[in-house]
Each structure stands twice: as C-alpha cells, then as structure tokens.
Specification:
By secondary structure, this protein is mainly alpha-helical. It is built from 4 helices and no strands. Helix 1 packs across helix 3. The longest helix has 17 residues.
C-alpha cells in the first residue's frame, strides 16, 4: 500500500512548483518559507518535487510525429 504522507494539496503543489521556478512574489515566498519551517510534509513534498525535476530535467522528449500528424489533420479541416 502506498503512503500519501508527502502528497501535497493541489494548491501547495502549484506553489512549490512556482517556488522552484522562482515565480513567487517576495510575499508569497516568505509565506511559503514560513510554512516549510513548520510543516515536515511540505518540506518532503518540496524535496520530492525537486528530485523529480532533476531526474527528468535532462531527458529529451520523444517525438514520434504525433503532434505533427494532429496539426496536419487540423489544417485539413
């Protein structure tokens, strides 16, 4: 059985993602850092998100021509 202890809410996940993208205002960043200080689950979620980003960051996207085929079909309509 899988544990969901480090599964963040959608709002927290979005905020953590924006934090890693350096896309938070100073106020939002301060509020998040305060939350991280007292919330081990949020810190775990941030660590996991960073590890996943690091792992897939250098992986090139596969292109089997799917997108090009869809675009071509749209042009024919």
């Amino acid at each position: 059985m899988r544990s969901h202890a480090a599964t963040p809410s959608n709002d927290l996940a979005a905020t953590l993602s924006r934090f890693l993208d350096s896309d938070l205002s100073a106020e939002e960043c301060g509020a998040l850092l305060e939350q991280l200080r007292g919330d081990a689950g949020a810190r775990d979620a941030l660590t996991i998100l960073q590890l996943v980003r690091d792992a897939v960051g250098g992986v090139p996207a596969l292109d089997d021509g799917y997108t090009a085929r869809i675009l071509e079909r749209l042009k024919l309509r």
